[in-house]
Amino acid sequence: xxxxxSSSNNNRFPDLQVHGSGQLIQTLLKHDLVDEFWLKxxxxxxxxxxxxxxxxxxxxxxxxxxxxxxxxxxxxxSYKRAGEVKTGxx
Length: 90
Fold this sequence. Notes:
The protein has helices spanning 2-7, 22-30, and strands spanning 36-41, 62-69, 75-81. The chain contains 2 helices and 3 strands. The chain has a 3-stranded antiparallel β-sheet, with no helix packed on it. The protein has a single domain (2-81), classed as Dihydrofolate Reductase, subunit A, CATH 3.40.430.10.
């Protein structure tokens, strides 16, 4: 399946949206099939739960493309793929 997805022409298939599946995201990252993230960041901490970027996440660089904040303080951010991971000063 991953070979077929990665070799497909982006114009022939609609966007693939993943809601709440950390395992699927990890698999898509592993096969270099993620070109954009839309993240919703809520102003709360739960203390427990599944992590989106858990141990073993494949390294990938992204650049902030767009960000908006709702009246309730929820941040909706779009990150696009930015090539190779570069380490250094922030």
